[in-house]
Write a structure and sequence with these properties.
The chain is 79% helix and 3% strand. The chain has 226 residues and is mainly α. It has a single domain, classed as MetI-like (MetI-like fold, Orthogonal Bundle). Strands 1-2 form a two-stranded antiparallel ribbon. Helix 1 runs antiparallel to helix 7. It is found in: Cell membrane.
Length: 226
């Protein structure tokens, strides 16, 4: 009988799972490149001096952006992006678009900090050695520095990817359909906690796949010991 209940619920829960994968996919596609730009902007030394103080406006703007994104709840950011355009300009946001935009700018702030710390962890001596060998700054970064940075940032990046899978449930706050929303509706209609249990198992499976994929990546990059 329980098997029949599970079978009957699975089509709805699988639809919700597809929505989770869509949120995950588009967030990663947008936030990872943006996070890389955030890391570069954070380290950008372009600016001017006032007395003994270095003024670096781009770096400061990036730091303020990161503080806002990392210092306020993602749920609040979702609601602001969804409803602020209507209250300010009477423009209605598409729920999926608002979800992806909020997730992308939020996670880009975290990825930016991860990538920045990875870049900063490379000893300055490697830059100097590359210069002595005749490498340009671009060649040094892409051929020597970047592979090592990728190796070092894989574990924290994998953790953020797993958090992203779970955070997709927050889209429920603006009515964006996904797995948690589907489970809640089934729970109400069936007067059973079984949909939540199944949803939890699906979230666990998705994160197990992400974790396994990142472990494979770590193994492939094990030749970078630095």
């Amino acid at each position: 009988m329980i098997f029949d209940k599970i079978t009957g619920m699975m089509p709805v829960l699988l639809d919700g799972t597809v929505d989770v994968i869509k949120i995950f996919f588009w967030t990663v596609i947008l936030s990872v490149p943006l996070g890389f730009l955030v890391a570069l902007g954070r380290n950008l030394r372009l600016g001017f001096r006032i007395g003994r103080f270095d003024v670096r406006p781009i770096s400061w703007i990036v730091q303020i952006y990161q503080l806002i994104m990392r210092g306020t709840p993602l749920m609040l950011q979702l609601m602001f992006i969804m409803y602020a355009p209507y209250y300010l300009w009477h423009v209605s946001m598409n729920r999926f678009t608002a979800t992806i935009f909020a997730f992308a700018i939020n996670y880009a702030a975290y990825f930016g900090e991860i990538f920045r710390s990875g870049i900063d962890s490379i000893p300055r001596g490697q830059y100097e050695a590359a210069k002595m060998l005749g490498y340009t700054k671009t060649q040094t970064f892409f051929r020597i520095i970047l592979p090592q940075v990728v190796k070092r940032v894989i574990p924290p990046t994998g953790s953020e990817f797993m958090v992203l899978i779970k955070d997709s449930a927050l889209a429920n706050v603006i009515g964006q359909p996904q797995l948690f929303d589907s489970a809640k509706k089934l729970m109400s209609s069936s007067s059973s906690i079984l949909p939540l249990v199944i949803a939890g198992v699906i979230f666990l499976i998705l994160n197990a796949v992400v974790e396994y994929a990142f472990k494979l990546c770590e193994k492939k990059l094990n030749y970078y010991k630095g």
